Amino acid sequence: MGPARLRSALRFAALLGCVAMPGCLGGREPVPSAPGLLLVTLDTFRQDHLGCAGHPDVRTPHLDRLERRGVQWPDATTAIPLTTPSHATILTGLPPRAHRVLKNRMRLDPAVPTLATVLQEHGWRTGAVVSSKVVLGPDFGLDRGFDSYDVVEPADRPASGEGALTAERAIQWLDGHGGPGSLLWVHFFDAHLPYLPPAPWNALYNRDYRGDLDPSTHAVQDDLRQDPAADPADIRFLAAQYAGEVSFLDLQVGRVLQFVARTHPATVALVTADHGEGLYEHQRYFGHDILLHETAVRVPFLLAGPGLPQRTSRLIPDAARTLDVAPTLLGLAGIEPELPMEGRDLPAEPPREGDALHFVLESHPSRDKSPSIYALRTGAAKVIWAGRRQGREAYDLVADPGETTNLADRELREHEIMLEDLQLDLRTLPPGAALTVDHERGGLDAETREALESLGYVDR
User: Fold this and answer.
1) In this structure, are residues 302 and 71 in contact, taking their beta carbons and an 8 Å threshold?
2) pTM exceeding 0.85
3) What mean pLDDT comes out for the span 382-387?
4) I need a labelling partner for 46 at 20 to 30 A (CA). Which of 83, 210, 288, 397 fits?
């Protein structure tokens, strides 16, 4: 792990030197037979809530249909359960400590190439339709390389049903600019706290609830966490509201996919998420930013469209990572980036084996919520470490996929080695300073603080 991460750091240093050289990324014209590319990121979307991933109740017919005509990587993992840094990883193919965006509202270094900047250099049309200005607005550098960067922001938060407008704006862009040689990134925010699916999805999974819980504020989740006698019916209600958001989002994504199928059938669609969501399973917590359990880090990863290798099965047992999004889409575009990414082109490259399956996860919540936490995950095991004072966790992901039994006290040799590898990785490439744009401005303004509080990102 240490040598691999060191190679990543050295590649990043080379990257910073390279981008200053004229022509480093080249200026070739698009491949004549290039497809259109559609990247859909679903904020706060748990992989296990897909029907095509085996959920018995939650309805996701449009995403299930996409999976039936493409492939799914059921073991797909995010690098970090925070929106801004996770999307930086999705767009760069680099882990957080390489691209250096560690927290929400940090700015991506202008020297770091992204999927959009590479495609734009090769003459592609590029557009983005994203939700939530507070974590994905243009202040954070993720707009680089996009000809247009449309931020869909409701007039008031908390909001309900904003994904309908996001889908409408995405369809408008596709109608004018889609087709071969184009990239559209669409980001939907609806499944994020607080869970407020519009009717009829707000009653789809909770018809029997007779309580009076108001889900319109983030504070209600904190209240449940602090209440040792919390009513299980309230907990089930909030989980049902989340499921309603998932089904509502499925319809909105379906609108975009159906438009593409009618108008630009040669488009490749990749659907994933920036992170999942804890639904009270761990630390009695609704949310994601202070968790590195599977509920918060497992994400959907669906790929469908022309030009994909024929598969004997729609389920790909090989592990995928959000790191793999950018190199996979560049590979499908017929472009090999001249600057290395840590992710890989999933359809073209062989499965990882041995130590290459090890994957470092991390999270850097706001200072008043939790210390930074790190994990090392293999296909079979995970260790979570929050520094010497906070202790550690260890899990057998095969025997205990729900991570219900912490094995850290047993001091198993496998977990000891993984912890040593994780600590070596952190020494090799330390996180460094995590300064947001708000540090540059002398602190959070009242409007931004209120928006972050409404989403549960800072404590009240």
Assistant:
1) yes
2) yes
3) 92
4) 210
